[in-house]
Specification:
With 689 residues, the chain is of the alpha/beta class. It folds into three domains: 283 residues, TIM Barrel, CATH 3.20.20.80; 200 residues, Rossmann fold; 67 residues, Golgi alpha-mannosidase II (Immunoglobulin-like, Sandwich). The strands form four sheets. Strands 10, 11, 12, 13, 14, 15, 16, 17, 18, 19 and 20 form an eleven-stranded mixed β-sheet that branches. A nine-stranded parallel β-sheet has the order 5-4-3-2-1-9-8-7-6, covered by helices on one side. A five-stranded antiparallel β-sheet has the order 21-22-27-24-25, with helices on one face. Helix 5 runs parallel beside helix 8. The longest helix has 27 residues. Bound molecules: zinc ion. The site of zinc ion (ZN) has 7 residues, from helix 6.
């Protein structure tokens, strides 16, 4: 097979007569498509009845793919139940947050605790693996699809209680972890524990709970319950196919599931990129970096993106000419070794018939979208293996923590308006727009490769993290934490010490009080000559060794510190005590990055994104992505060759990017002995398959 970025997408030929397949493959060849994701929603065909498997369609699909020189990412197809299964075994249907047992319908509709679902889904996965393990078209296994949601049925409640016994050991430990003496909740029997739902501890929806510790544990449990479905199918596959890499498609910053708990069980990470409407380019970039961080920086797959438009939103704008290409190269710049679409041919009916596709209902090759897809396919083919297996040599880490996300957004007080993703994104954006590469990593990550560690709204501090952050500063690094960081332990119990808890010695501050105000209230913050605005939460900081960098402008705490810097070892701890606006965050983060010489050479160009990857042969690749509608006129910082055009630019010479343009500069790397970080042993090299 070819050594190139995998290119293709979700393909559902089972919806079409075989004469259409001829057109499909002709068009795939025209577009440079080599990879087909097959079988994602095919359960009702592959198993039309409990005692009947019918793999004839998949046989033909894989045979045809192999004949055409294409490979298949083969799905187990267990994300949407067939009607017979739900009718025969109603227990497989989920019970929702309101306590309603659902009847058959939609997809992602199975109870993760159902033994019938487990038995039938693993049996199907095993059948597929038995039949196709040695098929020449098989490239990777795709288990289920976009795992998500939650179930609140009685069976899941029982499983939750068993999970709690495993986690807490005794009821005394559980009562202590959840602080149940509050509101007379001390449990004396495990059976008294109810899943946190609209019928029990919650009001006004999933974010309003009387017991955060209980709700946190249920989200962890549901993450594990769905993960159990994945690992069971993976085991069924492994019984017949010990080698082909296995994945499932994640959804980036998806709140319900803690993907860090899943990561060790995947052979490679993959995800579906559908950024919110109007999101800045740093939003999908953050999600890409989060996904890359799941497997210790190993390359991931962009499993889905739309070639043109989504269908699920109220309003579904088109990707403008050039936007698809730019978004695809952005994924590659952040670590993608595959770029796949949902979907290759548009569905004729049902709720995704207007979802964008490489091939529309008329089957034409002379559409703008098809031409852009094909142009990109040939460009990626020409790029060959230059970026495959490349790693990001980031010296800045951002801690991303699902527990903190859940705890922050279920917290009563100080402000419901603080949103985890927004604050994390603000700090990520500041670092990225300053030209720093950023690894987005869990609290448990090895922090020794990093000069700068950003910990925005890191509400829960777990394990030995505080000591490892102190070690970063001891050896000269900088750690930045913000308001509402370091507030509670893994159970969301407040630390019985000064805020910010275990981070206080490193930050050199003490916080006794915090003020929250409506969103229209603006507090001015003076950062030397620079003036920023702050909103929502204002922690009142007492200096305990730190020096003020910024001060509040108004109210009874006017003149007290809003931003501080603390000398610690050979490094520093920075504390931002309020929700600064983006210019304020930019100002602070750039000061931190500048201390470590981490401001990029093109940081002055706001529409220009840069990202670095180091190829396995040591070549350093600097991606330049112009998100602007105007040309970006740069001065080359080094002599380099653009991999896409072969054009060589000397240091100091003009370098112009078209609107939405992309350049991949190939740079000689000056210190070859330091050029690679160790690979994790579990990372498959898909090129060798
Ligand atoms: Zn259930």
């Amino acid at each position: 097979m070819s050594d190139r970025i995998r290119y293709g997408g979700d393909y559902n030929p089972e919806q079409w007569p075989e004469r259409v397949w001829d057109d499909d493959h002709r068009l795939f060849t025209e577009a440079g498509i080599d990879t087909l994701t097959v079988g994602v929603f095919s359960w009702s065909l592959t198993q039309p009845a409990e005692d009947t498997y019918d793999l004839t369609v998949l046989d033909r699909v894989l045979k045809r793919a192999a004949e055409e020189g294409r490979q298949v990412c083969l799905a187990t197809g267990t994300a949407a139940l067939p009607p017979w299964l739900a009718k025969k075994y109603p227990e497989v249907n989920r019970t929702d947050f309101e306590g309603r047992r659902h009847r058959y319908g939609q997809r992602h509709n199975f109870c993760p605790g159902s033994p019938v679902y487990r038995r039938l889904s693993t049996a199907l996965a095993g059948r597929l693996a038995e039949r196709y393990a040695d098929h020449p078209a098989l490239l990777a296994w795709h288990i289920n699809n976009e795992y998500g949601g939650a179930c609140y049925c009685d069976r899941c409640a029982d499983a939750f209680r068993a999970w709690l016994r495993e986690r807490h050991g005794t009821l005394d430990a559980l009562n202590d972890a959840w602080w149940t003496t509050f509101w007379s909740h001390r449990y004396t029997d495990w059976d008294q524990i109810e899943p946190p739902s609209a019928l029990t501890e919650h009001w006004r929806g999933p974010d309003h709970t009387a017991f955060q510790g209980l709700t946190l544990d249920y989200r962890r449990f549901m993450t594990d319950a769905l993960l159990g479905c994945f690992t069971a199918e993976k085991e069924a596959i492994r019984a017949h196919d010990p080698h082909t890499p296995v994945t499932t498609n994640f959804m980036g910053m998806y709140r319900p599931l803690d993907y860090h708990r899943w990561a060790p069980h995947l052979d490679f990470a993959s995800w579906d990129n559908y950024p919110p409407l109007g999101a800045p380019p740093t939003w999908p970039a953050l999600a890409h970096d989060l996904m890359r961080g799941l497997k210790d920086g190993a390359p991931f797959w962009l499993m889905e993106q739309t070639p043109s438009t989504t269908a699920c939103r109220d309003v579904n704008p088109l990707r403008r000419p050039g936007e698809l290409r730019l978004a695809t190269f952005q994924a590659i710049a952040h670590g993608a070794d595959a770029a796949l679409y949902f979907q290759l041919r548009a569905s004729r009916g049902a709720c995704e018939k207007y979802h964008g596709a490489v091939i529309g209902h008329a089957g034409r090759a002379d559409t703008r979208v098809f031409r852009e897809v094909a142009g990109l396919g040939h460009e990626l083919a020409a790029l060959g293996d230059a970026t495959l297996g490349a790693r990001t040599p980031a010296r800045t880490a951002l801690l991303f923590d699902w527990d903190s996300w859940w705890a922050l957004e279920t917290s009563d007080g100080p402000s419901r308006l603080v949103r985890y993703q927004d604050t994390v994104h603000a700090y990520y954006r500041a670092a990225r727009e300053a030209g720093a590469d950023v690894d987005v990593v869990p609290q448990t990550a090895d922090l020794t490769p990093y000069d700068v560690v950003l910990a925005p709204v890191l509400h829960l501090v777990k394990g030995d993290l505080a000591a490892r952050l102190e070690a970063v500063a001891e050896r000269g690094g900088t750690v930045l934490a913000t308001f509402l960081s370091g507030r509670a332990d893994e159970h969301d119990r407040a630390f019985l010490t000064d805020v910010p808890g275990p981070l206080a010695p490193l930050m050199g501050v003490r916080v006794d009080e915090w003020d929250a105000r409506p969103p229209e209230f603006v507090q001015s913050v003076r950062l030397g000559e620079f003036r920023a605005e702050a909103r929502l939460v204002f922690e009142i900081v007492l200096e305990r060794g730190a020096e003020p960098v910024g001060t509040y402008g108004t109210d009874f705490y006017a003149g007290t510190p809003a931003v501080t810097r603390n000398a610690f070892g050979r490094g520093e701890g920075w504390y931002v005590a309020t929700d600064l606006d983006q210019p304020g965050v930019d100002h602070v983060v750039r000061r931190v990055l500048a201390r470590h010489d981490l401001i990029g050479p093109y940081a002055g160009h706001p529409a220009l994104e840069t990202a670095t990857r180091t190829a396995p042969d040591g070549t350093r690749l600097l991606f330049l992505l112009n998100h602007g509608r105007e040309p970006a006129r740069l001065t080359a910082h080094a002599t380099a060759t653009d991999l896409l055009t072969g054009r060589r630019t000397g240091a100091g010479e003009p370098l112009t990017l078209d609107p939405l343009g992309v350049v991949i500069l190939s740079l000689p790397y000056p210190r070859p002995q330091q050029m690679r970080r160790p690979r994790s042993s579990g990372t498959p090299d898909l090129r060798k398959k």
